[in-house]
Amino acid sequence: MSEMVKVAVDAMGGDNAPSEIIKGALEAANENSCVKICLVGAEDIIKKELEKYNYKQEQVEIINATEVIETAEPPVMAIRKKKDSSIVKALQLVKSGECDAYVSAGSTGATLVGGQVIVGRLKGVERPPLAPLIPTEKGTALLIDCGANVDARPSHLVQFAKIGSVYMESIMKVKNPRVAIVNIGAEEDKGNALVKETFPLLKNCPDINFIGSIEARDIPAGYADVVVCEAFVGNVILKLYEGVGGTLIKKVKAGMMTSLRSKIGALLVKPALKETLKEFDLEQYGGAPLLGLKGLVVKTHGSSKAIEIKNSVLQCVTFKEQKINDKIKEKITLEDE
Amino acid sequence: MSEMVKVAVDAMGGDNAPSEIIKGALEAANENSCVKICLVGAEDIIKKELEKYNYKQEQVEIINATEVIETAEPPVMAIRKKKDSSIVKALQLVKSGECDAYVSAGSTGATLVGGQVIVGRLKGVERPPLAPLIPTEKGTALLIDCGANVDARPSHLVQFAKIGSVYMESIMKVKNPRVAIVNIGAEEDKGNALVKETFPLLKNCPDINFIGSIEARDIPAGYADVVVCEAFVGNVILKLYEGVGGTLIKKVKAGMMTSLRSKIGALLVKPALKETLKEFDLEQYGGAPLLGLKGLVVKTHGSSKAIEIKNSVLQCVTFKEQKINDKIKEKITLEDE
Questions:
Q1: Burial (0-12, 13-18, 19+ Cβ within 10 Å), A58
Q2: Is B244 on the interface with A (CB under 8 A)?
Q3: CB nearest to B280's CB, from A251, A265, A270
Q4: Which residues of B touch A243 (CB under 8 A)?
């Protein structure tokens, strides 16, 4: 039997907490017997929710937490003051080694700050990037960084490239993943100051497969496996992916409802379309890991439903099995020598 | 009769030059008798193309240019060396006042550099922004800046907000246009250094309708009419719009072809869908104006077809009629006092 993977799940975070969070966590436990879930939050509420489901007692534990950090709260202050919040307590379980990983759909800011302050960075990692998988025509790409480090420096971006390569190779099984830097043109002399400084550094990295610049247009087409950028740009990319996708699907649906003819067509097309569009749904891919910490911290959408929580928890299993943190440490240290 | 609007059209620029460029320019002339086209490029080639069409001789003129600036050429050098290129000669027609406007599907870099160096900035304008219209659920929004000024300063962004307001109010007839700055969160303290510095400046602008930050997700939903950002981010937004849109439409089409049932449905849905998706096609909106110059300079997609050239030329008519440059000068000068 494989080793157990213990995941601290913030039962109180996200728009659909606690019901969808608990549901998703239990689904993950039922699917994989190596998973142990620590549900962190108000004990009485969690207990009541748990009554609805069938699950193995030994796979689920409750850790009581009396406070909740709200999305709008300034994260640094919230982490410092709300010592008995579900986020702080769940992160402490990872810090102490009691849990391997953390999953939350709650405050992004608090997770990012708490991840660094409570769990702590791996030796050598300058700034841990938030790195979600995004859908492409050919499968998925890792967008790194997308929210952790605004106004990053070139050396940070180089680490993102290395960390992203480890992730895509070990978790997503992409051989020799293609690394590209987000730019506004394909030529080497294009870009802003940050990209121009970073480009030659990436070019001279012996241990990544750097293919040069990628224009935003080519990201959905799947031209790269690891898409490197600083957090502001990454955040814009992630959110615009959602925004354009959502608007376009709405337009497609509205378009189908404009005539009787098209309405009949829509009925026929619907099942096939649903299947294809699922591939392009960000929620299918679980949450975004905050990489480079002494433990795995995963942030899922605020609007996460059970499916995303389940996928995020299961992601943690692969993460541990593949010893991603050892590999990241190795790759980062290599650079320092 | 209205005043004539003379537009210098770069007949040699873009993937589909000269045929689609000339076709589109003539369509604009045929549609609006106030338009006069100066086709700039290799005279013999242009003459041959013109033979294919019906048009009024007095609405079309040829200006011979023996050189072409290629997309890959470093723009500053190209503008300096290729004095007899279609881009340089067309821009000079605007500079001399012989033409009111310039339209090119050729090198973006050369148009941006040439626009500033040859045509010149309006008094008070620090950096002329490139500002395309992008489709939203509710109509269109102006994305300003999207390619002219990487590493911009806060004062530039404030000017973009003012210039964009003039444009949306006068050309697109949006009353009291909502101005927002692209950010990675809705709260005032979110963002990178540039956005944090710019935010209070915009808040204190008395002559724009500043509504705060906009997350990339909300741009396609149409939450703002003037979307302010520095050029790197703007370029990413514009190109990702195209990229996600293209990929998703491909997925929808492929999804419809997966079964016999869905294929039949697709036939029924197609006409209605085509109409709706047209609204979301960037090419419907003509090119992107480079605003704040002593004349109108419009850059269209490299892949422009006749429809985009036509729309770009017709855009120039409204631009002149509405005396946009006088309005921009007025708004910018107001700030200096």
A1: exposed
A2: yes
A3: A251
A4: 216-221
Q: Are A137 and A224 in contact (CB under 8 A)?
A: no
Q: CA–CA separation, B166 vs B170, rounded Å?
A: 6
Q: How far is CA B74 from CA A104, A187, B70, B113, B277, in A?
A: 48, 10, 9, 10, 36
CB-based contact A156:A228 (threshold 8 Å): no
Contact B39, B11 (CB under 8 A): yes
Measured in degrees and rounded to the nearest 5, phi and psi for residue B174 equal -90, 120
Residues of A in contact with B254 (CB under 8 A): 276
Q: Is B76 within 8 Å of chain A by CB?
A: no
* Size of the A and B interface in Cβ pairs below 8 Å: 205
Q: What share of chain B is helix, strand, coil (3-state, %, to 5)?
A: 50, 20, 35
Name the pTM for this structure: 0.89
> What one-character DSSP code corresponds to residue B219?
T
* Residue B147 structure tokens: 């390619």
Alpha carbons within 13 angstroms on the beta-carbon side of residue B178 total 14
Contact predicate B290/B112, CB 8 Å:
yes
Compute CA distances A302 → A71, A73, A105, whole Å.
9, 14, 5
Question: Using an 8 Å Cβ cutoff, are B175 and B169 in contact?
Answer: yes
Contact A239 B231 (CB under 8 A): no
The ipTM, to two decimals, is: 0.87
Residues 6+ apart with CB under 8 A from B183: B190, B191, B195, B199, B213, B214, B215
pLDDT of B337? 44
Comparing CB atoms, the residue among A220, A238, A269 nearest residue B269 is A269
Residue of B nearest to A273 (CA): B255
pLDDT above 90 for B285: no
Q: Are A168 and A222 in contact (CB under 8 A)?
A: no
Nearest-CB residue to A259 (from B232, B243, B272): B272
Cα–Cα dist A313/A55, whole Å: 16
Take residue A282 and report the two structure tokens written for it: 């960000």
Phi and psi, residue B104, nearest 5°: -145, 140
| CA separation for the pair A256, A259 (Å, rounded) | 7
pLDDT digits (tens, 9 = 90+) for B139-198: 899 999 987 778 899 999 999 999 999 999 998 999 999 999 999 987 767 889 999 999
Task: For residue B240, give the nearest of A220, A137, A147, A250 by alpha carbon.
Answer: A220
Q: Is there a contact between A256 and B249 if contact means CB atoms under 8 Å apart?
A: no
**A56 class by beta-carbon count within 10 Å (0-12 exposed, 13-18 middle, 19+ buried):** exposed
pLDDT of res. B260: 84
d(Cα A7, Cα A66) in Å, to the nearest integer? 19
- Residue A284: which pLDDT band, with cuts at 50, 70 and 90? low
Of B150, B243, B273, the CB nearest to A220: B243
Share the mean pLDDT of chain B: 91
Average pLDDT over residues A253-264: 83
CB contact under 8 A, B216 and A240: yes
Q: Counting every residue, how long is chain A? A: 337
Element (H, E) at B26: helix B19-31
CB atoms within 10 A of CB B172: 16
How far apart (Å, rounded) are the C-alpha atoms in residues B297 and B282? Answer: 18
Neighbouring residues of A107: CB distance < 8 A, sequence distance ≥ 6 = A13, A69, A70, A71, A73, A75, A78, A87
What pLDDT does A337 receive?
44
Is the Cβ–Cβ distance between A165 and A209 less than 8 Å?
Answer: yes
